[in-house]
């Protein structure tokens, strides 16, 4: 077996990875909190719900480090039928999406 050509091998530089900055606090279901665990403010934060259920929350323009966004999911079986999508922008303008299962 031949070794991969370093010129075409994928980079494994951890500095290129962007860790998802969110943690979901599920301790008060159906109330959830989306906590910004990064060291930067996250802007244009928006939640959408796919599947069975309704989402109630108050959109925020920015979530500072350590702060959270609270939301409620009303669904018959959210673990089976519902996914939330979180959209945000980093300070450099990069847009990100993250799926949350219940």
What topology emerges from the helices and strands here?
Layout: E1 22-28, E2 31-36, E3 42-51, E4 54-57, E5 62-63, E6 68-74, H1 78-81, E7 82-89, E8 95-101
Structure, described:
The chain has 102 residues and is mainly beta. It has a single domain, classed as Sandwich (Immunoglobulin-like). 4% of the residues lie in helices and 50% in strands. The chain contains one helix and eight strands, in the order ββββββαββ. The strands form two sheets. Strands 1-2-6-4 form a four-stranded antiparallel β-sheet, with no helix packed on it. Strand 7 (82-89) and strand 8 form a beta hairpin. The longest helix is centred in the last third of the chain and has 4 residues, at 78-81. The mean pLDDT is 87.
Give a nutshell description of this structure:
The protein has one helix at residues 78-81, and strands at residues 22-28, 31-36, 42-51, 54-57, 62-63, 68-74, 82-89, 95-101. The mean pLDDT is 87. The relative contact order is 0.23.
Entry keywords:
globular, 1 helix, 50% strand, four-stranded antiparallel β-sheet, single chain, 102 residues, 8 strands, Immunoglobulin-like, mainly beta
CATH superfamily: Gamma-adaptin ear (GAE) domain
Number of strands: 8
The name of the CATH architecture is: Sandwich
Radius of gyration: 17 Å
The helix count comes to 1
The level 1 CATH classification is Mainly Beta
How many strands, what sense, and barrel or not for the largest sheet? 4 strands, antiparallel
Mean pLDDT: 87
What's the N-to-C terminus distance? 44 Å
Regions with little confidence, pLDDT below 50 for 5+ residues: none
Strand order across the biggest sheet?
1-2-6-4
Share of residues in helices: under 10%
Structural class: mainly beta
What pattern of helices and strands is seen along the backbone? EEEEEEHEE
Please, how many domains? 1
CATH topology term: Immunoglobulin-like
Approximate strand percentage = over 45%
- What best-fitting shape do the alpha-carbon axes yield? globular
């Amino acid at each position: 077996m031949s070794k991969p050509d370093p010129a075409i091998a994928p980079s494994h530089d951890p500095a290129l990875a962007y860790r998802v900055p969110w943690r979901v606090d599920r301790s008060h279901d159906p109330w959830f909190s989306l906590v910004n665990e990064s060291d930067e403010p996250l802007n244009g934060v928006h939640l959408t719900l796919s599947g069975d259920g309704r989402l109630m929350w108050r959109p925020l323009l920015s979530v500072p480090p350590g702060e959270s966004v609270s939301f409620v999911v009303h669904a018959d079986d959210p673990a089976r039928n519902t996914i939330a999508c979180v959209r945000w922008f980093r300070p450099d303008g990069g847009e990100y999406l993250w799926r949350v299962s219940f």
